[in-house]
Amino acid sequence: MGRTLQNTMINLGLQNACDEAVYQLGLDMEELEEIEEDAGLGNGGLGRLAACFLDSMATLGLAAYGYGIRYEYGIFNQKIRDGWQVEEADDWLRHGNPWEKARPEYMLPVHFYGRVEHSASGAKWVDTQVVLALPYDTPVPGYMNNTVNTMRLWSARAPNDFNLRDFNVGDYIQAVLDRNLAENISRVLYPNDNFFEGKELRLKQEYFVVAATLQDIIRRFKASKFGSTDSVRTVFDSFPDQVAIQLNDTHPAMAIPELMRIFVDIEKLPWDKAWDITKKTFAYTNHTVLPEALERWPVDLVEKLLPRHLQIIYEINQRHLDHIASLFPDDVERLRRMSLIEEGDTKRINMAHLCIVGSHAVNGVAKIHSEIVKTQVFEDFAELEPEKFQNKTNGITPRRWLLLCNPGLAELIAEKIGEDYVRDLSQLTKLHEFVDDDLFIREVAKVKQENKVKFALYLEKEYKVKINPSSMFDVHVKRIHEYKRQLMNCLHIITMYNRIRRDPAKLFVPRTVIIGGKAAPGYHMAKMIIKLINAVAQVVNNDPIVGSKLKVIFLENYRVSLAEKVIPATDLSEQISTAGTEASGTGNMKFMLNGALTIGTMDGANVEMAEEAGEENLFIFGMRVEDVTELDKKGYNAQLYYDRLPELKQAVDQIKSGFFSPKEPNLFSDVVNMLFHHDRFKVFADYEAYVKCQEKVSELYLNSKAWTKMVIKNIAAAGKFSSDRTIKEYARDIWHVEPSDLKIPPPNEPRDAGQDKTPNGSAA
């Protein structure tokens, strides 16, 4: 979520008033804003997307709740020591959190372990351990519409009789100390991005948030006029008309068997009725196609922790496979592929298959990704129910990612096309009229230059490196992962360095290359990549021949509040994943909206950005998905590229020989070995096209006016990538609710009785 203060002032229309008031108290608002900690309760794109979605849902007047875990420790703080990443705990609550309100009156029990008793009256889950879920509510204000939604995060608490009810005569002190065991559930965020780690505590976290949330939703449904009761029993027929639940990846997949358990075991609905309601309630968003990221939980772990849920999953699977067998008799291979249970050394539950079978809609997050989901990853399921599969291209909130972080540009745009674009970003197309307006071109360039000077001062303060603010700011910020190919950027830096040294007199377009991002603490290769970037920076930044022509900065502890500083100052945005691996990306959109040009592959939302702005207005290079597939068929041989390309050979040899690590010549042998023998992401195959494309970038940068014209064309084409557009599509195609642009009257004005009705029947 990042910081909340400035976003709240903007959405309430209070920023100028607050700035002025604080100034009159002799304080500086910006200094005050810098004191607030980021709420870093997610890992990367997926968590930030949820935050943008909350802003858009409130702005569109949807009655929507964001549910999650109130981690005591969020994503680790990253320190760079001697070029290596070192993790520190993110004690973000140390000074309290003024934006949250504990709601103990809504505390709910969550059960674990135990066993299942079957009887004539049905199944009962007994002898469980209980953990209490305490909700904390954070307000989510819409933009200038007097709407405030809620983000409800659950914290784990031990019940007061924890470890004391089992008449353990003795150790009262130990029993109280053991309360930590229960409360550890919400202690810390698992720091993996695009990687599955099958740990028991992680499964506990996933079930904890799901069980508390579903109880909360059902309590709210029963209290509403829709939860009509026939004598004692609630009638749940209208449940899917009143409730829509969107599963953000498979992490909350246990919600599907949990809702079935509530309906069948507790509310005593017949299975078929319960299943029909469940499917109509859930929809699933897939966020990755990397096999190592797909959740596959061991059956024996689920059996120990959630024995009733395992039985329900088996029953879902049995009925699912019976259905497929009826359509494809004797196709045992298809049954194996489509089963929720994977046989093997250890039997596992494929959570994506559970989500597909248990949802009425499945979507990818960019056109190209949704196609890959349909035709490759889940092709058997899409063949069965093609109408279930959709695309919902990701977006970003223009409130945080333009108004808040780039007020200079936001104001310049408002002067030309009015202020309405903030709620309807498609209006940015009106900027096309000003592409040839010399004054506007100069003003856009001036805002960018001011942002660069400000960020250069920040860098000089933090990193003690002299930055040339007229150099091209070439920025690559995102989680560190092999598929995102920070290594390819690194090879380009080394290539530029070698060219400067080979011919110091030759014209060279000066660059400041900024790379930032966190590596999962257990991801060895990602940590080596960080060390390599820092080792290269050490050499480049201290070479007198290079001088101010090339500087390399590794940006420490990349997070939302730092993104808000670097993105508005960026000239060139690096989006260079191997085609077919980045589901969408959202950083790409933030840079486009803030006046950077993109160098990128035809991957994720880059494809649609090129479609909107015109491919000639992005620097697109490298293999397309078809080329990657072709190369896989043929067999990727890295050695061929190394032998054929002298500059690539030189760069790789320098890494290999210890040119960048003279005290430890073999330091990067793992990296080099990977690049030659098991590089799944084919860095060498795109190197030549990348370097050539970078030459075109430098050439255009020399012509400031032509560069800025291209920038304006990009901003004018960025409208599609508002999360408001994305959420309208979810609302209409999946949740079946209508966004409302009714401005609720402020609380100090009396309301008409007619205005009291909620504009939308349903809650998402």
SSE layout and pairing:
Layout: H1 5-12, H2 15-24, H3 29-33, H4 45-59, E1 65-69, E2 77-81, E3 84-88, E4 101-102, E5 108-112, E6 115-119, E7 122-126, E8 129-141, E9 148-157, H5 172-177, H6 179-183, H7 200-223, E10 229-230, E11 233-234, H8 239-242, E12 245-248, H9 255-266, H10 271-281, E13 282-285, E14 296-298, H11 299-305, H12 307-327, H13 332-338, E15 341-342, E16 348-350, H14 351-357, E17 361-364, H15 367-377, H16 379-384, E18 389-391, H17 398-404, H18 407-417, H19 438-463, E19 472-477, H20 486-502, E20 511-516, H21 524-541, E21 550-555, H22 560-566, E22 572-575, H23 587-593, E23 597-600, H24 606-613, E24 619-620, H25 625-634, H26 638-644, H27 646-657, H28 669-677, H29 683-702, H30 704-716, H31 723-735
Parallel strand pairs: 1-9, 12-13, 13-17, 17-18, 19-20, 19-22, 20-21, 22-23, 23-24
Antiparallel strand pairs: 2-3, 4-8, 5-8, 6-7, 8-9, 10-11, 14-16, 15-16
Helix pairs in contact: 1-17, 4-31, 9-10, 9-12, 11-12, 19-30, 20-21, 20-27, 20-29, 26-27
Which class do the helix and strand fractions yield? alpha/beta
What overall geometry do the principal axes of the alpha carbons give? globular
Q: Helical residue percent? A: 40-55%
Overall average pLDDT: 96
The largest beta-sheet arranges its strands as: 21-20-19-22-23-24
Main β-sheet description = 6 strands, parallel
Number of helices: 31
CATH class of the largest domain: Alpha Beta
What distance lies between the first and last C-alpha atoms, to the nearest angstrom?
Answer: 19 Å
Please tell me the CATH architecture of the largest domain by its name: 3-Layer(aba) Sandwich
Low-confidence stretches: 753-763
Spatial extent as radius of gyration? 27 Å
How many independent structural domains? Answer: 3
The total count of strands amounts to: 24
CATH topology heading of the largest domain = Rossmann fold
Could you name the CATH homologous superfamily of the largest domain? Glycogen Phosphorylase B
* DSSP strand content: 5-15%
Catalytic activity: [(1->4)-alpha-D-glucosyl](n) + phosphate = [(1->4)-alpha-D-glucosyl](n-1) + alpha-D-glucose 1-phosphate
Cofactor: pyridoxal 5'-phosphate
Pfam family, one: Phosphorylase
EC number: 2.4.1.1
